[in-house]
Amino acid sequence: MNSLILLFAGVFATICISFAGFVTKSYKDFGSLTVEQNDDGSKFPPARAGVAIRGQDVYRAQGCAACHTMQARDRNDQVADFQRGFGKRQTVMRDFLYDQQVFLGNVRIGPDLANVGVRQADRSWHLNHLYNPKTTVPKSLMPKYPFLFEQRRVKGAGSPEALKLSGEFAAPSGYEIVPTREAEELVAYLLSLKAEYRLFEAPFPIEKKVEVNGVQPDSAATVGAKP
Amino acid sequence: MTSATQDKETAVPAGQHKVQPESHEIDASARWPVAALLLHGSFWLVVGSLLALVASIKTHGPGFLGGVSFLTYGKVSAAANAALYYGFACQFALGIGLWLAARLSRCVFIFPGGSIVATLFWNAGVLLGVVGILAQGPSGYERLEMPLKVVPILLSGLVILGASLVGKMFFRTEKTLYPSSWFLFAAIFTFAWSLVAASLVVSNPAIRAVVKPAVALWYANSFQTLWLGGMALAVILYFVPKLSQQPLVNSGLAVFAFWTYLIFGTAGGFQNVAGLPNWFGQTSHVAALLMLATAVAAFLLIWSKSWSPKKSKEPEDEWVRKLVALSFYAFVAGAALNFLHGTRGWSALLSFSLFGQGLAQLHLLGFVTLAFMAAAYHLLPRISGETWPKPALGNLHITLSLVGIALILVGGLFGGWVHGQHMATPQMPFVEVARKIVPFIGLGTLGLLVFLAGQVLFLAHLTLLLYKSCASCCCAGRKEVA
Fold it and tell me: Considering just the CA atoms, what is the radius of gyration of chain B in Å?
């Protein structure tokens, strides 16, 4: 194979096919995704509030995707995503339709976050967890992000936004810990991560109910998305 | 061979250098461009290994350098990847690729200053990229973690270096295009195309975010498999016949290995991604299976009569032989594990575990780094005109590197298995899952520490060699290295 021209032609053709197959096909398929509208007028995926969209950039900047994924896997006998509350169905690209960036992630040092807004809907919990994860999960290995918060002197009755911390984590006497704008945006984004609505391409899996002690199960749950 | 015979046999185009230059002439012309790339690459290898070590410590010791906004785990690990892949691996690939292209094409460097300027551009881009990650956070795209605004700076350097590499092949005085040259050409072409295409897509706000993950994964696979992996295979296929002084067994096998590697390599990278349609993962899984054919072909090509280790007088020949062999083993092991990783049972167990990181480390450290180190140990004495000043340093570097890599891989691959087992147990809280893998991450930390120590020694040894070369060049004529 001594001809550089032929080598170039072969390499060019191969890369072209790969580019067409993955890049342009992705553009064609995902670029044309639209929101799904049910008969009652509800739309899925739901749009995120502006503060949550800004929170995506905070999520990116802090490198959260290095430890957390946002892709729940379809249930089979070998994964525990649904049992862990990571979602009720497979994650699909349409879930990220309104996002400015998609953070699929590829390793779970920490839990999957695709459905964290359902699994943990308490704003205060998330703020405390970001400030110091050990305030909410004592054995957590997640690093703390105190620079997303501000320690300031208490004025009057104190800020209603101040974190409620106690023990070794409490602010020094006369001071309070208040989330910065970035912390608020990040928590708003995390609270917006909900994946328990049905989509046509991602129906809920069939729930099999097993007879226990001679008692027949109730009728099987209906599955699938809207017609 | 007379010049008339050369003209007749090489049939060179008009205007081309008609007499084949000698090896020492080629090496002399390659001296500063290649040395600049490898010296800078070695520096970034140390920096990247240090950043990776810090990131690894933070995984099991979150209080380590904790609370510092520019040293979060996410930023440090992304910066480590940028330093290792773009600072070290790319520069070694480019430097070794230029030297291989010059040697295989029997073509001198016409304008070495241009390559040196390109090297400065590349390093400026990497520096800005690493600092940008620590300051602003990663971009969020694997293998494109640097702020995307530095890509044009990198491309400025890549265009010059790539043109130099391809230009040598086009204006070659050696008629034959060897298998290594095929891999060199495919690697540089793929890298340039995929870097431009991917960076344009992911940085374009007019393109929907849902399009970008697939493009980023396509780029990450092209970068790792075709660019770095292709360059490493070029090195292996160059050194095996060279050190054994026998040709490769079968040219048909070489052609088969090349085209299967290219075709199936371009289709990989989408295994174990749940958010994309199933056909992405299934295509990659089939490609991973067929890539085993490439591994078998390469094995047959290399591991038969053509490869008969001979005792050599020069210490670097033994280093090169050992490193090339281990690199090839890592390539074969990586191909097999990559395929198994995508099978239904293994995928369910190992997706999102440390196993994926272990595979990436096997590829970068086991396959690519060992091949590049082999090439560096061989070519640096030749371009500098000096022998390695402290063979004991070379032995220690290789020993520490191999021990470090082994520890890192055990931590990643076996730790990934344990990680996957625990993730599949819903009764175990996730915080417990994370704690169960701490010993394996700790093993990886120890491995990185040992590996880092080895690379510091290599950088020191390389600096000594270049200093010795400069000193002897200034004081007297250089002695020719055979």
Answer: 22
